[in-house]
Amino acid sequence: PAGAAAAPLPEEDCMKLNPSFVGIALSSLLAIDLWASKRLGVCAGEGSAWGSARPLMKVIEVSGHGIPWLLGTFYGLCQSDSSAAREVLLNLLFALLLDLVMVAVVKGLVKRPRPTHNKMDMFVTISVDKYSFPSGHATRAALVCRFILRHLVLAVPLRVLVVLWALIVSISRVMLGRHNMTDVLFGLLLGYALYGVVEHCWLSPATAPALFALW
To answer: What residue ranges are annotated as transmembrane (predicted)?
Structure first.
């Protein structure tokens, strides 16, 4: 009827003149993250501000890669003749595998692209590694750092070096242009939390006799 009130427009057709404060804040933080990450990518290419340091950064990159850590841990597990050492190494292997799975799941869900200034020459990049969030290197660095400090008896200078290694690996991800800052920060938090899962699920001859029977 002519006098009937007009039907309201669907919500998606309405112009949102007052976007939410949370939306504005998140958009602003994302813009700051992208801007700062690009500014800090000083080793992203040979022509970058610190391009001459790029080879060193790539060595640091390899030191935090999952494949060397997995192979080294598995080799140590096979060569160890101490039951206590085998228990620690088996749990480190479990921690590294858990890290790979969790990072892959989050990357597959978020699917955040790598920074545009990243040069895709990474060491062994497969599957979801094409995505950026979170940084697997940062996650692994935090996890391994906590694990080593908890289960290896080290002198204070060596403990400091382990912490510095974790920090340098994480910072190098932004310097190389591999990740944005939020990728690295979330990766560090995730790795820190994953160590708690490893401790809670600690594998021992009492809790996992079948695994220890293999070794």
So the answer is: 89-110, 152-172, 192-214
